[in-house]
């Protein structure tokens, strides 16, 4: 193994189709028009010295190192800013150029502290490299110039330092913040020798500035000015392994740069097709949880949840799981136990859990946490288009003219895609935001939405119908697309439905609170603005009409012909890293891999033949149904892999009651999470750094996860499932996760061509990947829908049963913040807590004033389901009548307040609409105090030695 | 399984399928229950129907009846 050194072409790739041929240092090279001479030289294998250029940024032309000579032209132009032209004859190395470059380097070095041996970037410094490349042997100005070592370092950021003494003012960090991340937090302050990089205003440091810690500046820095603290502490890495981030559904590729088995840093991989070399604060820096002191490394068990945990051997723990599950089935019946797979686990792991449940438990009581996020996407898109997935790849955004973002906050929840989206918006694409909150996308530096439809929570379907009403009644239909690709009868029915005056913007404005003219304007823009793409998130799905809204989105894209080519489409932004994959892998109780219903005899027989087990043809319980069945007394045992259902699922008291009613709860996780407080067996899990497998991101891209260190708990998660299966009498034989993927491919038509060999060769692949598409499918539904004709569905708006009233006059909606992830199990155990150490309640100034609440006050949040307390954050981000919080911290337990209401088709909980009241409070509620007491009591670990 | 909750869930399903055109909404509701509800949930809603089917919307009531008949045949 060695350190992966990616080629830096100096300037970005030109996408021009026209080709240009020129000669560089005697070599003929042909490149796309618009390519810089610097990049063309790299293509020809020639490296031109450079400092201010890097291929993630537009050419800047400030360092004057990359000068070249061009036959017939005077002067020495910078190769980074000079485009190629037909027939040019370029020289990159002449006596004149050598002299100029040495002169430039002398100037840089005369103003640089020459402490290379103790510098964190020693051996990984472009300034050092360039000194060598230009043959610098002396500095005529001497070495007595300012070394700047007295300048104060900015160490405020928990993950990287800014050392101004090392800065050569190349502006790469400033430009990375602008061009790649789109935050505009950095600038160059002062002039001449006084020029320096500055984060925000004079009084700011990196932490107090607008910086979002994406790491783009650190990555771009050619010296040690911006350095990861981990590199400073550990030293430079010696080998790297390409793997996939374990956070959100963007699925960024990273180089895990290692020294032995210690991670030195995670560096976004330029070849990663989802992230194209960019990252966010979570993937780039928040991986330290794998070594957190609270990580559990030994199996534990106990007779009841009142007892302390007792460490045991793997054999004893696995035997307990199997014997308890067998006992429960004998006593309460075959259907009395089940399992939950996780969107945080690999495809191979989730596949094995559903295989264990179906083949080993003999029922279909398996579900996944996608139940509580994107299950409506699966059902809604399968009914309209014929497949349960988004239609595009992330690169598609580069061809989009109008972006409609509904119920999603990509700059917080899918930050790397958010940056790519903002880049496209800065290039001139138009933006419509449909969201009750004023998210950052609505207005931020160089970004402003054309329309922000700040709808009342729970009225998505009404708004989407109103947009369709305008399109239909104003004649903005793409007749040719509908005629060629959609079911005509379904379209006619649907057209009559949406044309009804009850769906007009004027009528819908009364229920949604959105002005009719804004709805009309947004609809016209979406239908007529060119390539229009819809991106949506849990603000669409987590409603009682989540599925209906997904269908309404699908209808909008069809009626305008925005399907089947780059730049358009329907794009669900998946919450967790492997939501798409866990759904693909047959984690839902009613279907096997590839979304085939369990009652389909041919499909089921194929699995039965390979697994050598009869399978139940009846659908199993979904997660909320498991809870209900537990309370009712027919569901007694649960195996939970990598999920914290107690914190993440709605109506916490109901979940507590359900878990308490079970006789054997088995939790497999890195930490004693909240669910583990009600567990009887704890199986320590392995982190993404410790195992092989694959994740499938929101664009259907299957990415490899590669083991970079030995599992600290002794077993990879897939091996633990194998052990349980064996103990249950259902033996499975795999020596490596690659073999599990081979089995998945054998049983799943859309994965038929997928293998680890293919992934190693291509880097990643988007399903369907089979004989018809051997290298995958970036854009779906080209020339027709998977189901045949596109199916318009009637999407009648039905108000949720969760209503405001005198007791609960406000509507609560929940979401995420950039620095934290889901239930926070990982990010709370990193330095990311510096940005968000507790959940707060956003409340509009009018609502706060009416209740006598001031910013930072403790408030009590009551709903029909329960109460909690947290601190108030007064802001106009939320509209009057709407409050908002996150669910990252168990001390707050936002889900104590959320209700049992759920989507009609899938039981996806209605997290986004809860009627609440807010009142001043003195501190934690009775329930919170009791919860904390119970949690502390439950987490005790006995000191007895392992059995 | 709580009868009230299942009734509410079944009625929600009904509210989606009843406005659909070109299909038999009763059959569609029954099919949805058959495909997505675990046997004990189906048994519970059928039992609720047998006890009078309080609060079930009419098309849903018909669908549960059809479900009951189909399950009796299988």
Automatic annotation (TrEMBL), chain A:
One of its GO terms (biological process) is formate metabolic process. Residues 238-294 form the 4Fe-4S Mo/W bis-MGD-type domain. One of its GO terms (molecular function) is NADH dehydrogenase activity. Residues 18-96 form the 2Fe-2S ferredoxin-type domain. Pfam families: Fer2_4, Fer4_7, Molybdop_Fe4S4, Molybdopterin, Molydop_binding, NADH-G_4Fe-4S_3. Residues 158-189, 202-231 form the 4Fe-4S ferredoxin-type domain. The keyword Cell inner membrane does not apply. Keywords: 2Fe-2S, 4Fe-4S, Iron, Iron-sulfur, Metal-binding, Oxidoreductase, Repeat. The keyword Amino-acid biosynthesis does not apply. Residues 96-135 form the 4Fe-4S His(Cys)3-ligated-type domain. Residues 927-939 have a biased composition (Basic and acidic residues). SUPFAM superfamilies: 2Fe-2S ferredoxin-like, 4Fe-4S ferredoxins, ADC-like, Formate dehydrogenase/DMSO reductase, domains 1-3. Residues 919-947 are annotated as: Disordered. It comes from the Bacteria. One of its GO terms (cellular component) is oxidoreductase complex. Belongs to the complex I 75 kDa subunit family. In the C-terminal section; belongs to the prokaryotic molybdopterin-containing oxidoreductase family. This is Formate dehydrogenase major subunit. The lineage of its organism: Bacteria, Pseudomonadati, Pseudomonadota, Alphaproteobacteria, Hyphomicrobiales.
From TrEMBL, chain B:
InterPro entries: Formate_DH_dsu (IPR021074). This is Formate dehydrogenase delta subunit. It holds the Pfam family FdsD.
